[in-house]
Amino acid sequence: MKNKKYFQLTQNGDEVDIQIYGNITSWEWLESDISSYTLSKQIENLDCNKINLYINSYGGEVAEGLAIYNQLKRHKANVKTVCDGFACSAASVIFMAGDERVMSTASLLMIHNAWQYCEGNAKQLRKQADDLDKITQASVNVYMQEVNITEQKLKNMLDAETWITPQDALEMGFATSIVNEKDTDIISQSVKKSLMELIFNAKNENQEDDAQEKDKNKDDEQDNKDDVDENNEQDNKDDENDKKDEESNKDKKEDEPKEFNMNSFFNAIKNINVK
């Protein structure tokens, strides 16, 4: 039987998106099943700076979950894990591999102690119980890398098979952030408000500039008017002086003897009727 890939892997430039939407198991019976072997073959040669890992899984085998956790922590890329629905049991361990661990308000984590079906005599059962404590401790070590609660409190939560809300996960350090559509709306409103403030401030600055420009234009107009009045006054003075000069020249011409015009003399002779 040919195994099918349990996830979708897409690469866009320096970022890779991986979806884990199934059981975490070494036996990939279903299309959605995941194994650490298949994942390691897919990501070992990935040349990227960021891996976005989206999780919706009820969990599965502890060994497979721990192996995937270690593969992701070992990769050179920055890892962002996103809980799209449930990240239960071994899937919650994988979720802890993220440098960024993001939950939506419509998502949950679930943690519990390791368990298995077992049989045997009393001695064998007591050994299996001790083994399960050690197996659980491996997951405890993973959680304690990031959470801000005591190990005893964590173990109490494991004993109680605890479902963890996004807000509790954020407060205890399981998650680093919570996102949802409302947050996006708030961000959009904040951006819109900032833009409106920028526009309003720019408008006020433009109005101030316009007012200053108007005042400057008025000053320039007044200066031009003064210059025009001054020029007109000077022109009037020049006109008066020219007029006086013309009158003076006219008087001088009248006093001067008129120059004899030969052409006029001959024309006058021609017009005389000879009888």
Structure description:
The protein is α/β, with parallel strands linked by helices and 275 residues long. It folds into two domains: 9-179, 2-enoyl-CoA Hydratase, Chain A, domain 1 (Alpha-Beta Complex), CATH 3.90.226.10; 185-253. It is 55% helix and 16% strand. Strands 1, 2, 3, 4, 5, 6, 7 and 8 form an eight-stranded mixed sheet that branches. Strand 1 and strand 2 (15-20) form a beta hairpin. The longest helix has 75 residues, at 181-255.
Count of alpha/pi helices? 8
Q: How many domains, as an integer?
A: 2
Number of strands: 8
pLDDT average, as an integer? 78
Shape: rod-shaped
The CATH H-level homologous superfamily of the largest domain: 2-enoyl-CoA Hydratase, Chain A, domain 1
Return Rg in Å.
48 Å
What profile does the largest beta sheet have?
8 strands, mixed
Helical content, roughly? 40-55%
Unreliable runs, pLDDT <50, ≥5 residues? 1-6, 184-191
What is the H/E string?
A: EEHEHEHEEHHEHEHH
Span between N and C termini?
153 Å
Q: Give the DSSP E fraction (strand runs of 2 or more residues).
A: 15-25%
The computed structural class is alpha/beta
CATH topology-level name of the largest domain:
2-enoyl-CoA Hydratase, Chain A, domain 1
CATH structural architecture of the largest domain: Alpha-Beta Complex
Quick one: CATH class of the largest domain? Alpha Beta
